[in-house]
Amino acid sequence: MKIENKNVLAIHDISCIGRCSLTVALPIISAFGVECRLLPTSLLSTHTGGFKNFTYLDLTNEMENILEAWKQLDLTFTAIYSGFMANPKQIDILKSTIKAYPSLSVVDPVMADNGELYGVFDQAFVEKMKEVVPVANILIPNITEACLLTDFPYQESINEDFIENLASALQNMGAKNIVITGISFEQSKIGAAVVDEDGNISYAMAEKQPSSYHGTGDIFGSVFTAELVNGKSIQDAAQAACEFVVSSIKATDPDADKKYGVNFEMALANRANK
């Protein structure tokens, strides 16, 4: 019996402390039975949310060296999953990598949350990120990022009409399939809007938790991508990702410092023991 070698190329930063990016993607994608290959964009002592005086090493030059070395290998990727890009040049590298290795591409345009850009980015970066919208097979922004990409004013209170207009604007920019995360229309539920290429919208929802944590978007994206590679539909993969994020939060000590992320490791262990 031939065993299929499913793999994901994860293009993210390495934040050494804080449970996000590659320290989340590598273990989760692997635990879902998919090989995780890496192309690091930068190296940080911690993630940038809540930690002070963090160190930061831009790996743009090394990304180019790695990709050049890979040309000598007969590589294929089942999927490419991208997250934090350190600078506009890395967005060009991402686009060329997706072109060089045709496969399922899942792009998380990491740059903002809660109505605000992350401190390391500016409007010029937003404009550059817009170039990725028509390139990705599946775009997975949160609401803030979707608003920035479409020049929609951000609003905390949303309804289905707002999400439909946001999705339509993204598809007018060339987006194909879209998963907008952080959707909540009622106090007890939170999840994602799933938009197919024809503009049809459905929702993947799970039980809303009383606290929010850093890194849950990366957990969502990692589970979502792994489940797609494992053959699930976009809707089912989004539902699985929502439920796993909730399981990770429930496995986390409510008194723990939130900037250190959620206990996804225990959620993985609980999943394996079922």
TrEMBL record:
The cross-references to Pfam families, in alphabetical order and at most eight, read:
Phos_pyr_kin
E.C. code: 2.7.1.35
Task: Give the GO cellular component terms, alphabetically.
Answer: cytosol
The Pyridoxamine kinase/Phosphomethylpyrimidine kinase domain covers 29-253
What is an annotated GO biological process for this record, any one? thiamine biosynthetic process
Lineage summary: Bacteria, Bacillati, Bacillota, Bacilli, Lactobacillales
* One GO MF term attached to the UniProt entry: ATP binding
Name recorded for this polypeptide: pyridoxal kinase
Leading EC class: transferase
Q: Which UniProt keywords apply?
A: ATP-binding, Kinase, Nucleotide-binding, Thiamine biosynthesis, Transferase
